[in-house]
Amino acid sequence: MQPPPRKVKVTQEVKHTHTEQLNRLQLKHQTDLDFLEDLRTYSQKKALIEKDYSQALQKLASQYLKREWSGAPSEEQRDSRNVWAVWRSYLEGVMKVSQSRINGCENYRSQISDPVKTFRVQKDLQLKRCCEQLARAQADLQGTIRDLEKSRKTYQEAEQTAQTVREKADMEAKSKLSLFQSRSSLKRASVKLKTKKNEWKLKATQARNDYLLTLSTTNAHQDRYYETDLIIQVLDGSFYDHVQSFLISLCQTELETSQSIQDTFQCLLDTSSGVTQDIHQQIFIQDNPLFQKAAPFQYQPCENDSVCCLLLRNVRELLKESGTAEEHSLNKEARKWATRVAREHKNIILTQRTLLEYEESHLQDQNNSELEAKMDDARECIRKSETVKLKAEARLNLLRDVGVAVDVWLKSAMNQVMEELENVRWAALNTHDASFSHSVDFDREDDEDTETLDDSSSSPSSTHRNYPLTCSVLYSYQASQPDELTIQEQEILELIDDGDMEDWVKARNRAGQVGYVPEKYLQLPTSSSLLTMLQSFSSMDAQSHTSSTSAEQEPEIETLTQSSLNTHAVNLARALYAYEAQTEDELSFPEGAVICILSKHNQEDDGFWEGEFNGAVGVFPAVLVEDLSVSYHQVSLSVLDQAACPPTVFPSCSSPESVPLPSLTSTLTLNGCQTPEPPKISSHSKTEHHSKS
């Protein structure tokens, strides 16, 4: 068993408590002194920092105030909207704010640092007096508690003795008489014991009363000690009142300085908001007439030239004299510059899309210098295209004013460009492949007369094949979903995009209907079947116009192909629209005709190509045909050597001379092989896709 805990005397416990109280009060006093010291040192250091900063700021502002600007207005001409006046006002405001900060530094010294030092000395003296007074109060309380202990001890001894006497008297009264004791002796003993019992009972009562009175006195003394003599409030004195005033001074000084800054710079903010670029540009242009808009150039006719402007009346008089040659010349100019406007419009849109993609990528990679260079090239390309387009539109406006049918050619060229842009947009939305925009030519020549249109920039490139791609249908297929396309055997389709499911592609038929078809039901073209496909394509398109045209297509293609094998490349084009020659040097052809391209570049680069059709050589508008190009090696190997079929993917090209050929297939056989049985196409995955959609 563990021994019972030792009982500590009350006097010792009270003495220990008083000692601990004194130690805690001294610790609290030291903490208060440390806090006061922190306030004092902080205010001193902050005042020093603020003073150094304000003086340095004043010195900096004064240096710029002394500087004179060549373009700055004089004091009499100063305008609040002028940037120089606002700048000078700002510097003056900085000087004013700096002086306000210096004044605040003086407040830190006079209102915080010096008063804290004085109050700290007073608090040390107060602690010394309070400790002496507290020690005397504790000694008095300890004496009272000792008296209480003595009274309690006396009471306990008297009570124990009285209890013993009572027990002995009770036992004597209960005992029986003995044969050897007389009655008188027993009576004397009983009287003596009773007297002793009463005596000790009286003593116990007196001791109890004395103990209760002493206990009441001690409790009253102890209450006074904790309520009055402990002097916690006396020891603190006016500490918190002083600290409150110090903190208020700190905040008030900061607020006064901040308010001065707020008032000064709020006014400067309102003034700065009035600074605009237009006002300063007007002032600069007024002061520098060299930058004013130059006068337009005037027509300077020769001495014997009576015509001073291009008017409809003059043109009509000229037409009467020279016949249709001048009319054709003006129409040719209209076609040329309408084509140029459409080309530049297309380049601007494609380049803007590319620039947008570059900017989105630049947000993710801010430190890509190569991407920034590409963005600069794109902006420069847009600037050049807009300039060329503006110049071309100026020519067209003049031609329109004199009665030339400019809008007809402009509408035709713009329709072709908008169709190409729409195809590019849908291809980008379906495949999420932005590579088409990266092929925009940023390195065009500065001279607008030597520019050539890069059609490859508007053709989206796929991972597996280049679209659009012409193919033939091997097996008929009946559409089972709203977005599918019904196809017939030997039908000619134009593939425009990959399908949304594997083994499906998006196609467009001759009627313009668009939908998804099974890829396995189609015969995709290869370079070895180029000659057969061109023959089939030419004959099928020509039958829709005249039977005579159909008979001329096959020998024409053979002649073109044989003659082209001796050159470095075969450049062909398919006519999208019929065209009738306007002059002797132009070439006529029906819709669907296959033309051999002899040259895409001429001295004027007016949007006309030089080609050969049915033995006739001439120029024609490039916007009316679709470029079909294939390299010399592909044609020679596939036609002459009958080699194995290469992959159905044509190499991606970056110039009009190397654009992949959208080819066709034969109506009966493909590549000289019999068509196999139609494969089984499971529409489960396709149907499931539609149900989810």
From TrEMBL:
GO terms for molecular function: lipid binding. SMART domains: SH3 (SM00326). This is F-BAR and double SH3 domains protein 2-like. SUPFAM superfamilies: BAR/IMD domain-like (SSF103657), SH3-domain (SSF50044). It comes from the Eukaryota. The keyword Cytoplasm does not apply. GO terms for biological process: neuromuscular synaptic transmission; positive regulation of cytoskeleton organization; positive regulation of supramolecular fiber organization; regulation of actin filament polymerization. Keywords: Cell projection, Coiled coil, Lipid-binding, Phosphoprotein, Repeat, SH3 domain. Residues 440-465, 669-693 are annotated as: Disordered. Transmembrane segments: none annotated. GO terms for cellular component: cell projection; neuromuscular junction; recycling endosome. It is found in: Cell projection. Its main location: other. It holds the Pfam family SH3_9. Gene3D superfamilies: Arfaptin homology (AH) domain/BAR domain, SH3 Domains. Residues 131-168 form a coiled coil. Residues 443-454 have a biased composition (Acidic residues). Residues 8-280 form the F-BAR domain. It comes from Sinocyclocheilus rhinocerous. Residues 466-527, 568-630 form the SH3 domain.
